[in-house]
Amino acid sequence: MAADDSCGAPAQVATPADFETGGQVVLAGKVTGANGPVGGAFVRLLDGGGDFTGEVVSSADGDFRFYAAPGDWTVRALHRSGNGEASVTAEGPGLHQLAISVG
Amino acid sequence: MSREDVLVTTQWAEENLDSPGVVFAEVDEDTTAYDAGHIRGAVKFDWRKDLQDGVRRDFVNKEGFEKLLSEKGISNDDLVVLYGGNNNWFAAYAYWYFKLYGHDKVKLLDGGRKKWELDGRELNSDEVKRSEADYKAQDQDLSLRAFRDEVVQSIGAKNFIDVRSPDEFSGKLLAPAHLPQEQSQVPGHIPGALNVPWAKVANEDGTFKTEEEIKELYSDEGIDESKATIAYCRIGERSSIAWFALHELLGYSDVKNYDGSWTEYGSLVGVPVELGAK
């Protein structure tokens, strides 16, 4: 990444189970609702103290991905159909999967 | 200055889509969202293509700003209402540009695109064409913009508000958690900086908290109201939100945004850097 690349969240894509995390803590998953995947949800990463850390918009297939650090995390999704959240404890590097339902 | 002088609600926006002299503008670095659907009649600003120099690390100069606004059909006496994705970061950054170049009739849509979408309000994908205007900008108002030498000289003398996440502030992460972490600069923060993440001034729907809540937040974090303040983040977008909160909502007089921010400061040779949580 170039130094002057912005901090904006990139378009989200699916994270396969064998995703190469490059030694990072990766938190990823899908947002779903009553009728399947929910795209366009605002997906917020909150740290162990409940403080906001980052936000992405879920892809059309409901995908989201964060690069975090070891610790306790909550991922909270906001959508006009409703909100939902899921929590995970990341002990170390690797892929940590979450499923969030809204509505 | 009151909230109504600098912010409009989504309700106000919806009621004023056709008001003469009001121009809506969506600002983002990824304009695919705009192309798929935007507020009816809103023009598009591409943060990277339209608002950056393109060669040097700086933003569009005065002539470039005049040309851009003229092409978008914005006149000097139009009220420009800015909004965007990413919790209005780019819109707040653009708001700061408009103020730098002397355009006073500018407001932010409170909550930005996110609040508009969460409200379930209408988006459309019609192409927006406004007739060309003849926009004249003023010289940059540098009382709003901090550069690196001033930053280094101000350590210990001014408030520094570091709006990055606690993990970026302490040095654990080098970029926000939705981005990969490979970076060239060293981790850490400007010595003495207060870590007040930008999101603390916003509700989860992206709207700003009340002025009372924001004032209490900065006061609890230890801001010295008798001193000038410089806000920074990684490249100056998220800190535009803090600059907006301090300068526009609370009305503090001497507040600058340091757009060089950590990607510049953390690459400077020989400057002091502090590590660890506050």
Polypeptide structure, described:
The complex is a heterodimer of chains A (103) and B (278). Chain A has 103 residues and is an all-beta fold. Helices cover 0% and strands 52% of the residues of chain A. Chain A has a single domain, classed as Sandwich (Immunoglobulin-like). Chain A has strands spanning 25-33, 36-37, 42-46, 52-57, 63-68, 71-79, 82-90, 94-101. In chain A, strand 1 and strand 2 (36-37) form a beta hairpin. Chain A is globular, with a radius of gyration of 13 Å. The N and C termini of chain A lie far apart (36 Å). The relative contact order of chain A is 0.30. The model of chain A has no long low-confidence stretch (mean pLDDT 90). Helices cover 32% and strands 13% of the residues of chain B. A five-stranded parallel β-sheet of chain B has the order 1-5-4-2-3. Chain B has a four-stranded parallel β-sheet with strand order 7-6-8-9, covered by helices on one side. In chain B, strand 8 (229-232), helix 11 (238-249) and strand 9 (255-257) form a beta-alpha-beta unit. The interface between A and B is large, with 33 and 46 residues.
